[in-house]
Amino acid sequence: MSEAQDHPTPTHCENCAAPLQGHYCHQCGQSIVNPLRHAGHALEEVFESFWHLDGRIFRTVRDLLSPGRVALNYLRGHRVRYVPPLRLFVILSVLTFFIAQFTVHFGEDDGGSYKGNGPMVIDGKKVRLGRTGERIENARSVSEVESERAQALKELEKARAAIPVGLPGGAQVGIAAGIKQVNAIADKRVAELRERARPDAAAEAAGIVAPAQEEENAALPATIENADSLAELEALRDERLKPLQAERAGIAAGNATALARNANAIRDINRRAGCRAAQLQIDHAVDTEGALKRKAATDAQTYGDGECNEGLTFFGNAPWDAETNPVVMAGAPEFFNRWLNKQIGRGYANFKRATQDPSLYEHAALSAVPSALFLLVPMFALLLKLTYLGSGRGYLEHLVVALYSHAYLCLSLLAMFLMFGLDAWISPHWSGFGWVAGIVEAGLWLWMPIYLLLMQKRVYGNGWLVTLLRYLVVGGCYFFMLAFAVGFLMIASLVRM
Question: How far apart are the first and last CA of the chain?
Fold first, then answer.
């Protein structure tokens, strides 16, 4: 016996007992379908209750593709056929940035960027350069620099020759960028070596110096940054620390300024030594592990941070430190300054993590954009209100236009993110799809501003010149605010990580 026979269609509403004359009760609005008796209707009710989705979503999305049609019809009172603007914007923005988490990836596979450390990645394939960039920077002679340069360029040329015919041009661009970067690092190091080896003019005139050709064989003075082994590094560290420790012993206990200066100098030497120790250990790991894949973030967690920078500074002052050199806002309460320096410390630590693992930037950006859009939709409506003061439309009507505009932008971004995913999935098997994906993505980017212009023209009905002028004013102000909001929220996301 069928389910329909088991549960015949009721003649009276199960909620209020009113006689039924259709699918819904005219008295209370309840449907005649009991979701407890029909699994399909139960699932439909879950989606309808959470998303309020029904056949209108397809009609709304279809009409949304025509610039201004949905907004204009909605403002004219044709509301029952469309999903309300706020609900549509929420649905599309959540769906868009959920999909983006799975399809948008940059960092490891960044099309050929090379920062001097680790393997270079070109179109998803790693070109093993070891740590050539770092070795060039630490080379002790011009001949050593040129040897490392030649090895790096040889690897890049080998990678260029291995690129299949017909592969999109991004690979060639990545190779060219890598060659340019290696040459830039090498040229800079050669200039530094020659500058250090350049003789004093008076001594050169007296004929006391060695000939210029011997510059290549001149070794650099031993420093922490160019120590060749951990043993040499520790000896150099102890040598630098001894006079500072002796100085500290002679500083009066009440001289806080001198003690802080001395402590900062000791800390700087220890920081530099720690960075060089990490570099040496990573170099040793690279040499012994051969062609195994490496990730800078993992190396940093295992061996320490090998990026020997000067630390965080503000306005050219001494490096920031939460204890010895904090940021202090004049007139602010002490608890606020403590909180501010805590946030600076977290943000700086997370920023350094993100330089090792660029996917953290990705997550920060993808979490910042939806929040920025939600915040700026009311501002976009306000810009429309101010720009169209003589249109006779109220703020809420402009808000409808703003919401449907942003819904279309989310729809376009969703299509673009899906193309990213298809590109990553199909291109390894068919390289020609990269061209197809690139054309579609470029078309979506180009059509978005055109769509918004046509939408503004259709909804407000002004002439082309007036519409274009107002469009440029609204667009310029809005994208300035959007860039600021995304940047601010991205920084906030990095701090909260």
Answer: 58
Q: Which residues contact 495 (CB under 8 A, 6 or more apart)?
A: 343, 346, 347, 350
Q: Is 388 helix (H, G, I), strand (E, B) or coil?
A: coil
Query: 387-404: per-residue pLDDT in tens?
Result: 998 888 889 999 999 999
Domain ranges of the chain: 1-51, 120-217, 223-308, 359-496
- Least Cα distance to 351 among 384, 392, 320 occurs for 320
- 183 compared with 74, residue with greater pLDDT: 74
In this structure, what is the dihedral angle of CA atoms 270, 273, 275, 281, given to the nearest 10 degrees?
-130
**Integer CA distances (angstroms), 58 to 55, 68, 348, in order:** 6, 16, 46
Two structure tokens written together for 261: 């200066």
d(CA 17, CA 61) in angstroms, rounded, equals 38
| CB contact at 8 A, 86 and 76 | no
3-state secondary structure 110-169: CCCCCCCCCCEEECCEEECCCCHHHHHHCCCCHHHHHHHHHHHHHHHHHHHHCCCCCCCC
Question: What's the rounded Cα separation, in Å, for the pair 85 and 403?
Answer: 6
In sequence order, the 6+-apart residues with CB closer than 8 A to the CB of 454 are 67, 68
Please state the pTM of the whole predicted model: 0.54
Tokens of 263: 């402590």
Q: Which two tokens stand for residue 228?
A: 């060749």
| CA-to-CA dists, residue 97 to 64, 104, 215, 363, 492, angstroms | 19, 10, 57, 10, 18
- Contact assessment for residue 82 and residue 59, using Cβ atoms and an 8 Å cutoff: yes
Closest CA to 279 of 130, 128, 109: 130
Contacts of residue 36, Cβ cutoff 8 Å, sequence gap at least 6: 42
Quote the pLDDT of residue 35. Answer: 52
Q: 51 exposed, middle or buried (CB, 10 Å; 0-12, 13-18, 19+)?
A: middle
What distance in Å separates the CA atoms of residue 138 and residue 145, rounded to the nearest whole number?
9
Taking only the tens place, the pLDDT of each residue in 348-372 is: 777 766 666 666 666 666 667 777 8
d(CA 250, CA 257): 14
